[in-house]
Write a structure and sequence with these properties.
It contains 8 helices and 6 strands. By secondary structure, it is of the alpha+beta class.
Length: about 280
Amino acid sequence: MKKRGAQVIWSLIIIILAAGAVFGLGYTNFRVPSDSVGIVVSKTGGVNSKPVTAGTFCWNWEFLLPTNASVKVFPAKSYSATKVLSGELPSGKLYSQQLKDNPDFNYSAEFSVTVKADSSKIVELLKASRITESADLDKWYESQAEEIINSAMDEILKAVNDSSVEKLDFAAISENVKTKNTKDGLEVVSFGISKTKFPDAELYRYCKKTYSEYNAIVDRKIEELASVQAQDIAANNRNLRKLEAFAKVLKEHPELSEFLKNSKDMNETLKAISSFN
């Protein structure tokens, strides 16, 4: 009886140990640091759609098969970037020449952005083969940050050319950029514009308008001149055809040539020439 009881106990112990081993092999959370996101990749199932994150229980049977599965670990922290953009407003030098003081239409600003992708977005990027390791995720973050900063610059230039905008509101532009670019699993945690140096938007628009009006006047003058020149060319061509026709008549009628040679009345000669159309 005691022997049978011992066998039962040992059987239970073996079952518990086996179950513990199975649980331990499939338990995925211990493979991923608390500040990271893990994604299970296996030969049997490919990229697992459910990310492994701290505080969420995750068990994957794929790890029960030797060498079948592995965990790709990516940082769960946000990414920050700062970039200074500078240059000249479109055609700024050209428009500046419209005023005596030649105003400066150069600009510069510092843009700071912090972004963070949620775990499902990281899974999506891995599935699409856009990332394979942490360095790739950093490069993707860098490209997203640059796009967001460039979109902010576009917003500013749009405001500069908007006649309804009296003064550039960088706080409002920052908030708009932040809201517009928080999408598709990417959160713009913060966005700011600082150390700004932008010319007077109203003055820039005035110079742009003046230049446009000046060009319109020049274009009209050129069209008028071209029309006059075209008329002169047409008249010259008509006279040339008349002279060619008259020369042909003189060749066919030598006596007329002799007549003109002895003629003292120029008006009479011109009338003779004009009669040959």
